[in-house]
Amino acid sequence: MSTEVARRPEWLKARLPTGDNYRELLGIMRRQTLHTVCEEARCPNIGECWHRRTATFLILGNICTRNCAYCAIVHGLPTELDLREPERVALAVRDMGLRHAVITSVNRDDLSDGGAGVYAALIRRIHETSPDCTVEVLIPDFKGDADALRAVLEAAPEILAHNIESVPRVFRVVRRGGDYQRTLRLLRRVKEWGYTSFTKSGIILGMGETWDELLRTMDDLRAVDCDILTLGQYLRPGPDYHPIDRYYTPSEFAELREIGLQKGFKYVESGPLVRSSYRADIQAAEVRAFRARIGWASATA
Q1: Which of 29, 144, 173, 145 lies closest to 93 in space, CA to CA?
Q2: CB of 279 closer than 8 Å to CB of 268
Q3: pLDDT tens-digit series, residues 229-260
Q4: 256 sits in which H/E element
Q5: What are the tens digits of pLDDT across the range 256-284?
Q6: Rounded to two decimals, what is the model's pTM?
Q7: Which helix (DSSP H) or strand (DSSP E) does residue 270 occupy?
Q8: Distance (Å, rounded) from C-alpha 70 to C-alpha 242?
Q9: Distance CA 232, CA 124 (A)
Q10: Which of 178, 230, 244, 254 is deepest in the core (most CB within 10 A)?
């Protein structure tokens, strides 16, 4: 990789985490012995998001059974499975006063249901303890297990997300253990089965895709009626990870946002530092407003 590509441009600078809200949220996480993807995946937005009192909870431990070439989360054989985790996360959501909670996890291919039962229990517990809080889950693919997906959907998350991450050609290289068509099938099933959860997916830019390939992947997501799209720049966690092919400019991200909206996504979050849960509370507000405009009932009704 060239020195030019290796050097991050000015627009990728992020604010260091600090301030009262950051310290308070950190204290709540530590007291409840919880993990966040903000910390585990070294998210560049942790300072901004925690200042705004939003965080993404990482459940089912912090060791992933897969080893994606772009991801900083530790991989290996997990040993942690805490069935009390739904209660502890729900209490943290209540104590933080969240209106929108984002839940994700490592892949747990070692579990028969991939952790779907814990997801379902947590969604229900948050709805019970914080009835005004909407829930977004960023789930693994459960190896294509339809019963596992249905178990999560039966708990009625307002937003169900599963990231496609890249175009088919690059996907095969960077997403070990995943399957491009399996991801599309998961998102399609949400709508085919008649659930009211909005669907969401994300693409990481700069791992070797072409512009045309990127647009075709956006088309693939719209073909399964995906509602929300996030687009962000790949930032290499270290020298042992997949190389950065290029940095997209802010103007290119702005253009992609407009293209996404023209293709029919209800909401597109596109920018250099965007990650799947970035400004998820604002996306949730847009979802609520959209539902109100078209007269949809709440997913939890």
Answers
A1: 29
A2: no
A3: 999 999 888 899 999 999 999 999 999 999 99
A4: helix 250-263
A5: 999 999 999 999 999 998 887 777 777 77
A6: 0.85
A7: strand 267-270
A8: 6
A9: 31
A10: 230
